[in-house]
Amino acid sequence: MVEQALGKKLALQKRQLTCLEEFFEAFPTVERLMLDGTERPVRRAQDYEQQKTDYSGKKKQHTRSHLGAVAPDRRILVLSQSYPGKAYDKGILNTEGWAEWIPDEVKIQDDSGLQGLQNEYVNVEIPHKKPKEGELTAEQKAENCTLAQERVIVEHAFGGLKHYEISAQVYRNRKENFDDRSMLTAAGL
User: Fold this and answer.
1) 10 Å Cβ neighbour count for 37?
2) Domain assignment of residue 135, given as a range
3) Which of 177, 184, 186, 187 falls 20 to 30 Å from 75 in CA-CA distance?
4) Cα–Cα distance between 99 and 80 in angstroms, integer?
5) What CATH number is associated with residue 29?
6) What total number of domains does the chain contain?
7) What digits encode the pLDDT tens for the residues 111-122?
8) CA–CA separation, 71 vs 78, rounded Å?
């Protein structure tokens, strides 16, 4: 019911971008997007193979992963389907294929979880990595600091999403795709 109401208010996020025109139609005023992943805990499966798929080494628990695109006003514009906890941000982005439909005029800001995206697209900002057996210059450190100050918005957006218990606590429901729909609804609120 809430999902239907949100859909009528156009507050629900896009799930898939299929063309450049669709991006411009859905988000005409967006000049900057921040991409990041978030994980939510799920109960441990009884099947060993499913356990291996759901286990996130990053969180040291069984999780589901989502990738989101957030606007500077903290709105989650695009939210991916749920993926097993083992999935990483760049892999989800490659599967979803959003980056190719984001125009070059829109700046994409990422964290190091999407390392390598800057080699594929011209409009990507990613923090500088420390070179092997070297140090970052003062200018690179300042650029990283500025990027982190701008990107904190995406962390706040996902933090606001986690205010809803269903997206923060261990998800125990067994209904097919309900975990995904509940996350989408919480992001729309």
Assistant:
1) 23
2) 2-188
3) 177
4) 12
5) 3.30.420
6) 1
7) 888 888 888 889
8) 9
